[in-house]
Amino acid sequence: MKIFVRGGDFIYKGNTQETLSESLSEVFSNRVKEEKMILTLLAGNLIHGLLLGGVYGLATMGLSLIFGVINVVNVGHGQFIMVGAFVALTMFTVLGLSPVIAIPAALIIGMALGFFFFYTVMRRLIRAPELTSLLATFAMGILLEEIAKLIFGADFRGYYWAVGKITLPITTIPMSKLYAFIGSIAIALFLYLWFSKTRIGTAIRSVMEDSEGARVCGVNVSWIHALSFAIGIGLTVMSGVLLTMFIPVGINPYMGGGYTLKAFVIAVLGGLTSPYGAFFAGLIFGLIENGAYTLFALIPGVAPFPLTVSLAFWMLFFLLLVKPTGLLGK
Amino acid sequence: MSSMLKVENLESGYGAMQVLWKPSLEVKKGSITSLLGPNGVGKSTFLLTVLGSVEPWAGKIFYEDKEITNLPTHKKVDLGIALVPEGKHLFDGMNVHENLIMGAYRKEAIKYIDDSLELVYSLFPILKERDRQGAGTLSGGQQQMLTIARALMTKPNLIMLDEPSQGLAPILVGEVFETIQKLQAEVGLTILLVEQNAEASLNAASYVYIMHEGQIKAEGTADKIRGSSDIREAYLGI
Fold it and tell me: What is the tally of structural domains in chain B?
C-alpha cells in the first residue's frame, strides 16, 4: 500500500497498520494543510490508539501473569496472539461465526494449549537458568509459527466484520474496533474481580507474592503454576481474536514477533508482574504509538511506520534507564 | 506418650549437594521438642523436607504413625502440619487480615476460621488492632507474630517453627518463647522448635536434638543436654 501525501513527501508501506493508513488516507485526501487539521488528525488517531491500546493491554496481561507466577519470560508470547488471530479468521471465514463466539473458543483453545505446554515444557523451566527458559519458549513460538504455516500458508490474510461504524467529526470508528475495546475492558475487569474475590484467584495472588508462603498455607503451588500459565495463554489467545479487528489484512503465521516486543515494553511500563498495571500500560502504549505515528508523518522525508516500530525499542531503553520498576510499578 | 512426628534416616539436598545425612528424630504428642544447631547445618532443610517443599531423597517420615514421606506439601498441611518458615514469607501486598485468611486456605481449615481468628487475636491483640494494615508495613516483631498466627490459621496439630527468635530484640525473643509455651500448654499443640538460641530453647523444650553437618550428633532431655558440658562446648558454644 502506498499513500502519497503532500505531493509525495513520504511513502507509507504498511501491512499491519491498516488502521492508521485508513484514517490517514481519509483525512489526507482532503488536502490537509492547516494546523487545525493536523490536531484533528492527531485527536482522531489517538482515539484509534486508545481502542487498540485496550487490546494491547489484554495481550500483555497474560505475559505479566505468567512472569509473575512462574518467573519465566515467555519469548513465544506473540505467537499465541497469532493463534488467536487464526482462531478468529477460521471461525469467521470457514464456519461463518462472529468474533463474539470466537472469544470463548479462543479461551478454551488457549487454556488447552497452556496446559499442554505447561506440562510438556514450562514445568521444567520454573527453576531452570534464564537462558534455558528463553531458548525453550523461543522454540515454542517457532513451533507454533511453523504449524500455523503448514495449516494456513504464509500469505497475509484477513477478514472484515461489518457491524457498522460511528462517524465523528474528527474520525470514523468501525463498531468492530469499539466492540474489541469493550471486550478487552470487560475481560480485564472480570479477571480483576476473579483475582480479588475468589479463593483460587487469591491463591494465585499469594503465589505471585511469595510462593513459599503460599505453600505453607497449603496452596497446591504446582497446580497454581499450571492454571496461571493456562489462564495467561488463554488471555493472550483471546487478545489475538480482538486484535483482528485492527488488522484487516494482517493475519500471518509470522505476525507474532512484533507483538512479543510490544508486550515486553508494555509489561515493563506496567511494572512487569502486575496484570492490571499491564492493562493500563497497554492503553498508554496505544496512545503513544498512534500519536507518535501521526507526528512522525509530518516530518518531511521520513517514513513514519519504521520509526514507529523503533519507538518501542526506544521506550524500553529509556524506561530501563530511568525507572526499571515500571512507570506504574512500586 | 505416642509419637506425633517420626523421621527416620532422612536424606535430601539441593541439586547434587546433599544437605541431610540421615538424621532421625521423634516428636512426642503434646511436647515441645527442639532441634538445635548453628547456622547452615541443615535445620531449615530438615523442616522443608519434612513438609515436602524440598523433596526427600531417602528415609521415611511418619505422622501419627502413618507414612507421609512423599505426600505433596498441601496434603501434609491438610493433615495438620504447619510450618513457620524462616524469613517469614508473608504476603506483603496483602493486609494482616488477608494474610490470616490465606492461612485458612485449605477446606479443612475454613470450617474453623472463626475459632482460629479468635484464637490468634487473643494471642496477639496487636494483630487485631492492625488487621487492615499491610503486612509489609508491620515491625519485625509484629511480622513474626503474624507468621505464627498465619500458621495457626491452618488449624494444625503439629507446628514447626524455624528460628522464630531470629532478628528480634531480646525483649521480643522472650515474648515469642512465652507464646510458644502457651501454644503447647493452653492450646494443646505439639511443637518442633528449630533454633540457634540454645539458652532459651533448652528452657522451653522437654527434649532436644543437636544437629551438625546434616546429622543428629546428640539428643536427650533438656536437663541432660544442659548438664553435659561436652555437648554444650562442642556444639552449642555455651
Answer: 1
Residue to test with chain B: of A126, A199, A208, A216, most B Cβ within 10 A:
A216
- Interface predicted TM-score of the whole assembly (ipTM), two decimals: 0.90
- DSSP, collapsed to helix, strand or coil, labels residue A80 as helix
Sequence-distant (6+) residues with CB within 8 A of A327 are A269, A270, A271, A281, A284, A319
B102 touches chain A (CB under 8 A): yes
pTM for the whole structure: 0.87
Asked, for residue B185, whether it belongs to a domain, the answer is no
Residues of B in contact with A215 (CB under 8 A): 51, 53, 73-74
Domain membership of residue B75 (yes or no) is yes
Distance from CA of A201 to the nearest CA of B (A): 11
Rounded to the nearest integer, the mean pLDDT of chain A is 88
Is the per-residue pLDDT at A25 higher than 70?
A: no
For chain B positions 11-70, those within 8 Å of chain A (CB to CB) are 51, 53
Q: What is the mean pLDDT of the segment spanning A52-62?
A: 96
Chain B residues touching residue A210 (CB < 8 angstroms): 89-92
**Binary contact (B89, A203; C-beta < 8 A):** no
Show the cell assigned to B195: 533454633
Minimal-distance CA residue of chain A relative to B153:
A217
Worst-scoring range by mean pLDDT, A9-23, A218-232, B16-30? A9-23
Q: Which residue of A has its CA nearest to B91?
A: A209
CATH code for the domain of B12: 3.40.50.300
Q: What residue numbers bound the domain in which B66 lies?
A: 1-80+158-163+190-238
**Chain B, window 145-174: residues with a beta carbon less than 8 angstroms from a chain A beta carbon:** 150-151, 153-154
How would residue B123 be classed by pLDDT, with cut points 50, 70 and 90?
very high
Instruction: Please indicate, yes or no, if residue B76 is contained in any of the structural domains.
Output: yes
Return the beta strands (E) in chain B as ranges. 3-14, 17-21, 25-28, 32-36, 58-63, 66-67, 81-84, 158-162, 190-195, 207-212, 215-221
- How does pLDDT run across A77-124, given as a tens digit for each residue? 999 999 999 999 999 999 999 999 999 999 999 999 999 999 999 999
CATH 1.10.3470 fits A18-322, yes or no: yes
> Grid coordinates standing for B74?
498441601
Nearest Cβ partner for B103 among A199, A209, A217: A217
B100 within domain boundaries: no
C-alpha cell of B151? 500458621
DSSP of A6-55, one letter per residue?
TTTS-B---SS-HHHHHHHHHHHTTT--SHHHHHHHHHHHHHHHHHHHHH
